[in-house]
Amino acid sequence: MSKSKELPPTRRSSLMQRFALLGISVSTALLFKGDNNLNNAFAGDLSSGHALVGAPALPFVSNEGEQNSNKLREKIADEFGIEIQTLDEVSTAATAARIFNGLEGLLFSYQDWNEQNLNLLEHTLENLPEKFYQPDENGEKVHIILGPLTHCGSSIKNFMPFYPREIMLSSLYFRPEIPLSATWVLAHEFGHLVTTDSCRQTDSPYLDKIEEILGGNFDQIKQDLSGEIQTQAEQSDLSIEESGFVLPIDSIKTPVQEAIVRLTRLKYGLSNQEEFIAVIAESYFLGKNYFQRMYAPFFPQDVVDNLYEFARYNIFDGTEYPDYPYYSCQA
Ligand SMILES: [Zn+2]
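The joint structure predicted for all components is written out below.
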């Protein structure tokens, strides 16, 4: 049973009303890049809680559309044995959380998940192992909170209730035109969640295992690898975003664009061991050949193979994916 609540119609104020209420000018919106701009930034996480992407046109959602969305939300929650709620529903300080979380939070209402976004969420969940979302042995359900992209509350955990298994997803990443990216984002966030005992203890029990596979201390490897990534980027004249922001995976059209994504995400994975594991998860989801292209330039083959096997058995429950699995959304 879903405990998702119906949203009262009064919650859905117009965009202009929102701007007025928040006391910000419409020109602020121009800080976002256009929706079709290939330079759209796209980030896979964002433990920092900041996940800016090019702004899509805000969907017009009628009351009927809203009711359909709420019904669909309950259907998906029942289908996968999860809870789906908006940040506004679970947080008494959602506005404060938005301000804390920057422009994305100010300009978008988190309940603006329309039917298309939700249909894509349903398809992406179908594409992932049941272990990711099924209730655990204690019957603890996964809570998907519709809010800024992150997991276990991250930087806004003080503004919301505690859930032992929780990821937060933004509708900006669940657009029908970038379906592969939506699953890629879920693979990253679930990569965090399934390698963590509980959101109470966010250190992964697999940290020692990762160091064992890498054959050394993570900090030392981080230092060496950062230099190697930088060198390779300079030699190939590639520009690497420090933030981890990349093109939506669906938009990759050339080897150069893919190389930029790989190097940027590898570098982002060096932020800490938990991110290293989550980046392994997102890379694994893109297939064995992609995984090879990602890690083989920097690690011996046996290390690459062991990282792949780690992802296969410790994260993805044995499920493997073809290179760039692309499926069409039926939304
Ligand atoms: Zn992450």
